[in-house]
Amino acid sequence: MIDKAVSQGRLLSVVVLIICILGLVAAQRMPVQMIPNLETRIISIETGWLGATPQDIEKEILLEQERYLRSLPNLSRMESFAKMGEAVIELEFPFGVDANEALIRVSNALSQVPNYPENVDQPRLFSESFSENAFMYFAVFPKLGNPHQLDMDMISDFIDDNVRPRMERVAGVSQVNMNGTLRQIQIHVDPARLAQRNISLNEVNSAIRARNRDISAGDINDGKRRYLLRTKGRFAEVDDLKTLILAHRDGSNIRLGDVADIRLDHYEKRGVAVVNGEPAFTLSVKREQGSNVIDIKRAMLAEIEKIKVDLLEPNGMRIYMTGDDVRYVESSVSNVFTNLCLGALLATIVMYLFLRSGRATLICLMGIPVCTIASFIGLATFDRTINVISLAGIAFAIGMTVDNSIVVLESIEQAKRRGLERIQAAVVGVRDVWTAVLASSSTTVLVFSPVLFIDEEAGQLYSDIALAISASIIASMLFALFIVPAASAAIGGRVVERSEANKNAGILGLTRWICYNGKRRYGTMLVCLFASLGLAIILMPAAEYLPEGEEPKAFSKMVAPPGYNIEEMQRIADEVQVELDRAQALSDEEYDPSTHLLPPLKYYLMRVSAGQLWVMSEPVNGKNIDVMMGAIVNLFESYPEHARVFSTGLNNI
Q: 263-279 burial string, b = 16+ CB within 10 Å, else e?
């Protein structure tokens, strides 16, 4: 088989070109993202009940839902939270459970809850994983000067009905989350006016419910036609409510406007968003699993430009992208590719220094791009993505891919020195070492294969490294056994033979000295063992789940003790905003660490809710990220009764 492969150089060239084309096509079609897709394990259930206290929510909603959810198969953890106006249940399932099947089971269990109190919203289900967090953030403001005199609290319905659907229609987007309060019609009943007219509040409530609906009245036949009848009673305007007849007393109608003040307003505010000093309406974009974040960003920005022209500018609004993680993904992927090229260059230099032959180095060098491209075929076969971890695996494999080629090339050179012709030397050289090459490649692949069978998140994260390295090693083995002998027979490439004096010098001389007697051998092994363990202990880095990213973006959160209301948190936010606004107005030339708490900020986004303050910020100069983080830590520590959480970059992607 080997002798036939050596004599079919053109066929092998075609096969290599086909593999390269398939690998490049696979690389272009594979999604690009920051980290690998992680399996969904947590399902959240949110149930809203406006105005209800946590005690009522626990009794009327959580206990009823838990009664049917606790019997779900494979359920490993259930945790419930009762907040003002909202019930939240988190369900955690073990690795390997199908997320879609779990969602169906959860939905079926919730449908068995017999009834909920009046005005309770339908439960909403969410399934998320760490790799599906929001990666693009937008903010909607009024135009400068607010020429249309817009109330930002009253535009939520407009954004929800017009802007949000168009953003969610962008290919690859799974969900667009928005903050803000929806509009509502508020009816403020005057008890005195009700008492004067001898009308109870229940009568008012019943009259509104009975009137605010459309009723189908069947059909009627007239000649050869059939007409569908429908009575329209649903309120369309606020004035329709004012004219609603509550009762007929003493020959006159008592209308709702006689006993109540009616106006269009919004729900109670549960949170406030501030972007660069301006109150704003914020939107966060989440992607579908397996989608390409770079393509999503391009399509989303194009759609945002259309939304500006069609919807926002005519209505006196503007939209601004406050931040996106795609820049970091692009930068990280570019850095990995750069390091990959540098690694290939260094490997080439080292090979030439040892082989001392341009042709021999070229033969080995050809395997680097071929094996690298072939690794994308392996990743695509297992439905993986291009991410920092998979690219790191490809970079790790560069040095390994040339090992097999060097072994085969050296064996062929030894056969040539025995007086064999090029083709015969190529065949004999491969036959002498093919078992060693196969064994070496197999052991390397088997070392990484157990990672593929780990179901936990660690296995899902690092299985891409195992696949990339294994695919590269297998490709390098095939390249060394078939392409290297054919190339050696075609273009030659003699490795320069060192003189006898050089053989006795350097490493060979040290090796002979170590192997001279048993004491030296055992002593060398013990020294290497203890030196390795000592250096490993001394140089062991701090343990963390994922490394902090290099993106100069910080996330800071302040959690208040239980019971803090939004007014108190807004007071604290106003004090924090003073420093953020001051830093946002600074330039690098004006910045003086001795007089300014924070370095100049490129932007900041602050969200305030009852019991919580959250800030995302980025300095103008990325080198000031540590200075900015330290300043925010000091600023938050001035409120010692609050808990604080800080992180940067990758930990929030």
A: eeebbeebbbbbbbeee
